Design the sequence.
């Protein structure tokens, strides 16, 4: 039984390390995405929300959720496409703050400005 417990602890520690490394990579991608949105598409605000912003909820299949303000509607899909390229192994979900539902706007208030 002791061997089983030791193996379980090692596996849990390894999974925790991998999750932390993935979260760090996701943060790097989110920061690069915010810079791209501001520099190339004129975003005034970029807000990170969802599981990456709420660290305890981040898991191996988490994506990167970004909300933007100030990007012209005609440029939205080009911006989303550009994010798809830099996202690597991360899916990036993009929404316009102006189009967010009231419930999502409440969640965005707890988000992190990038």
Sequence:
């Amino acid at each position: 039984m002791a061997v089983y417990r030791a193996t379980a602890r090692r596996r849990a520690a390894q999974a925790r390390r991998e999750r932390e490394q993935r979260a760090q990579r996701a943060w790097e991608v989110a920061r690069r995405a915010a810079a791209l949105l501001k520099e190339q598409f004129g975003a005034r605000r970029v807000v990170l929300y969802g599981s990456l912003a709420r660290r305890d909820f981040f898991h191996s299949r988490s994506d990167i959720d970004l909300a933007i303000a100030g990007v012209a509607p005609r440029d939205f899909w080009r911006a989303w496409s550009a994010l798809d390229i830099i996202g690597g192994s991360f899916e990036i979900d993009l929404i316009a703050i102006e189009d967010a539902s009231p419930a999502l706007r409440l969640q965005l208030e707890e988000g992190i400005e990038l």
In short: The chain has a mean pLDDT of 90. The first helix runs from residue 2 to 41. The longest strand covers residues 64-69. Strands lie at 45-49, 64-69, 92-96, 112-113.
